[in-house]
Design goal:
Largest sheet: none
Number of helices: 4
Structural class: mainly alpha
Shape: rod-shaped
Low-confidence stretches: none
Helix content: over 70%
Order of helices and strands: HHHH
Strand content: under 5%
Radius of gyration: 23 Å
Mean pLDDT: 94
Amino acid sequence: MESNRPLSEIYSEVAAQWVDADAAANLLEGCKSAFLAEKMQLHGSLPVTKAESLVKASPEWRDYVEKAVAARKLANKFRVQMEQVKMRFQEWSSEEANERTKARL
């Protein structure tokens, strides 16, 4: 991160990235049961438990779950970056307060 940019600008940029990444992760997580049901339908008249087992053992299911986990990981990365910017502001604010106290003494 660039130290000469205002922290509010950096926070805003990272927050926008987090919003997009979090929305993508939420979409994948929210559609997980629909994806499963759709794939189970392809197995026709098999019992539900058997169809579910076949779908969950498939490479397609594994790919879907891996995409969902990767999307959540990216969203979490941006959330951590936002927290880091907040912490930098708090550190700066504390340093400024200490300097004002020293100046009064």
